[in-house]
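Contributing new records

If you add data, match the layout below exactly. Sequence lines come first and carry their own label; structure lines follow with theirs. Keep one chain per record. Anything else will be rejected by the validation script.
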Amino acid sequence: MDRRQAIGLLGATTVGSQAEAWARVPPGPRLGVGRLKQSVSRWPYRAIPLPDFCKAAAGMGLAGVDLLGPEDWDTVRDHGLVCSMGYPASRRDFIPTGFNDRANHAMLLRELEHTIPLAAQHGVPNVITMFGNRRGKSDAEAIDNCVAGLNAIKALAEEQRVTVCVELLNSKVDHADYQGDHTAFGVAVMKGVASARVKLLYDIYHMQIMEGDIIRTIRDNAAFIGHFHTGGVPGRHELDGTQELNWHAIAAAIADTGFTGFMAHEFTPTRDPLRSLSEAVDTCTV
């Protein structure tokens, strides 16, 4: 299962005795995570019941859980964490249907207008949205459309102090035809909107596939980035020696920019999931 599939699912799946074993994982002491607030995306760990997952995450020193709908926000807060990125909707077309097409604006704005005040009430700092699939549009047209749509929501986001994060994804491996597939595209939109409450979700896995040059790009565009996702390349698996990025160096570079948002782990484990997650937290602690 990937995130595109997980978006359309509600709730978590319980897996018999394995879930019972996870429930017995002691939370342990809350560890420091250095200069970065680390969190974790929910969807790769949906087999673990959310309360048990929150206990384990808190024990690792994680500060939040990413990519949750409103029905799960209170559960996370009950365990001393925050939903670090909330969904405004549960739609199977969430990724391809974005602000690059003005025909989508009414629906997307309606979703965000409902969700942003709700996020503020529940202490959720960020809400995700998408640029959308290209479907024949030029980058110039798409940038203009995105700027127009996001300009229509920025005042509410500023008023409620909730950041709308628009995600950069790769169109080469995972999301064919996605238009926001390069940092320059996203930055052009951010410059047009010019709001501290509309930022990029810079997914390092996706941008390594599309353009590489990760550390310099982050340094040069730090003012436009509100959130990070991790994931090993190739394969979107553990942040270990099986893939090509130096995650400790990336984490240090992010911290050096003065970044105060969340760096959320979004990889699919190939081994024991909680051990892999704990190792990723250690790797990115700087």
